[in-house]
Write a structure and sequence with these properties.
With 454 residues, the protein is of the alpha/beta class. It contains 21 helices and 13 strands. A hairpin with a 2-residue loop joins strand 10 and strand 11. The two termini are 57 Å apart.
């Protein structure tokens, strides 16, 4: 089911709004932020706004959805429907329930109860069932039997759910959707990470509107805003360098960043402080590595960064080439990687020979990209006799202009002789890698000599 990216202009005016609007996403902070902006837009003027918490009576919510307001011609009913839509990751719900319980206090208990109810619904376990039996069944289904005792403790304290429950709410929402147009009531729903294929979600998409809340185009700025807001809310000091380190360690993935940030805030506690070193100690490095990062380090002739990046390329993490995740074959990964490095050296040498002429249309490393496109790129892409095509046309088509620009910058820092020597050594290194030579050490030695110009 397609979703519309959230934007202020994607929220219709109340008069044109469908009976239900769902704001969904994989990070609760951004879902709540987008929902607040949607609520403000829908309620502008004299609309009545009713906001229901997770433990609200199903009958009260149903009544608000299906009956007209006595005080206003327009009503916006706000509620979270994550539990109604279910989840594909009950194991995570269990972990979140236990984490909330460990925090203690009223806020921690509310969080634990919310996730515990969602866990029972996801696993189709009766909320009114025996706490120990439910906990044992849930822990067994998510393969975390050791957590059964802790979950039993939560379920024993779980307040009895007010009458009606999920079935009543689903029926009310379906009735609202069947009306086709809003008759004075709009349900503004939120859900975090709802699974695809759920009937109710598809019905909302077909008869209502689903808005996708995400970090937007500037992901780093959005995640820094998230970190600052949550740290302030929890009264925890958070150094900017720590946020930068967390962005790197989580590869800037919003859901992973948010989850690890939550753990760090719990670890620091009220009045605590999170430093970059704390991130290093508490967060596993999940970042992928980009081969182009190695190429850039080689182009800067930075031996330290180049060798550090080589180590990361061999430590089992995902490897990218720009936006494309590479399919690594473990048995021959060293040969694959070395082939890419040699391919870059070959391209740098070819560019060096094509750009050495200077004069009008010449290249220098400080040239801007637009200038490169206007003055240099046409010459690089011109067909070469007798082949009738550019030497930068490959099996996947013409090289991307920006890739040629960056490779040209890298090549400008080497002489043609240095690159030629490196290319000449490649055959011996390739043979060594195929003869059980130590992989990382062998490639590191090759890169080190290339940077040194030896």
């Amino acid at each position: 089911m397609p979703r519309v990216p959230f934007a202020d202009d994607a929220v219709p005016a109340f008069a044109k709004a469908p009976p239900a609007i769902l704001v969904a996403g994989d990070v609760e902070f951004f879902v709540a932020e987008a929902a607040a902006r949607a609520r403000e837009a829908l309620a502008s003027g004299d609309a009545e706004v009713l906001r229901f918490e997770d433990d609200a009576s199903a009958e009260a919510v149903s009544d608000a959805l299906l009956n007209r307001s006595l005080f206003s011609a327009r009503r916006v009913v706000c509620l979270d429907v994550s539990r109604l839509l279910g989840t594909e990751t009950p194991g995570r719900l269990l972990a979140q329930a236990l984490e909330g319980w460990a925090k203690g206090g009223s806020a921690g208990r509310r969080e634990a109860f919310k996730h515990a109810r969602a866990l029972l619904a996801a696993l189709d376990l009766p909320p009114a069932g025996d706490p120990a039996e439910n906990a044992e069944a849930a822990a067994r289904k998510v393969r975390k039997k050791d957590e059964a005792a802790a979950l039993t403790e939560i379920l024993r304290e779980l307040p009895e759910e007010k009458s009606g429950g999920p079935a009543v709410l689903k029926a009310a929402l379906r009735t609202l959707l069947e009306r086709g147009e809003n008759d004075g009531t709009v349900a503004l729903l939120t859900a975090v990470d709802p699974p695809a294929g759920v009937d109710l979600l598809q019905e909302i998409g077909a008869r209502g509107l689903v808005l996708e809340a995400s970090v937007g185009e500037n992901a780093e700025a959005a995640l820094r805003r998230l970190a600052s807001a949550l740290a302030k809310e929890r009264e925890v000091g958070l150094e900017p360098a720590a946020v930068g380190r967390l962005l790197a360690r989580t590869n800037g993935e919003p859901a992973l960043f948010s989850a690890e940030l939550g753990k760090l805030l719990d670890w620091a506690g009220k009045g605590g402080r999170i430093r970059a070193a704390d991130v290093e100690s508490n967060v596993e490095d999940e970042a992928s590595e980009d081969v182009y990062g190695l190429f850039d380090a080689i182009g800067r002739r930075d031996a330290s960064d180049s060798l550090a990046r080589l180590e990361r390329l061999f430590d089992g993490r995902d490897v990218r080439q720009g936006d494309r995740v590479l399919e690594k074959i473990d048995e021959i990964w060293a040969i694959q990687l070395f082939g890419m490095i040699v391919g870059e050296v070959r391209r740098m040498l070819l560019l060096r020979s094509r750009l050495e002429s200077g004069g009008r249309g010449g290249f220098d490393a400080g040239m801007s990209y637009p200038t490169f496109q206007a003055r240099v790129l046409p010459r690089l892409l011109a067909p070469v006799a007798p082949f009738g095509r550019s030497p930068f046309d490959g099996g996947r088509g013409t090289a991307h202009p920006f890739a040629l620009y960056r490779a040209s910058q890298r090549s400008a820092r080497f002489t043609a002789a240095e690159l030629s020597r490196a290319l000449a050594r490649a055959a011996d290194v390739d043979a060594a890698l195929k003869s059980s030579a130590p992989e990382l050490e062998t490639i590191s030695a090759y890169v080190g000599k290339l940077i040194a110009g030896a």
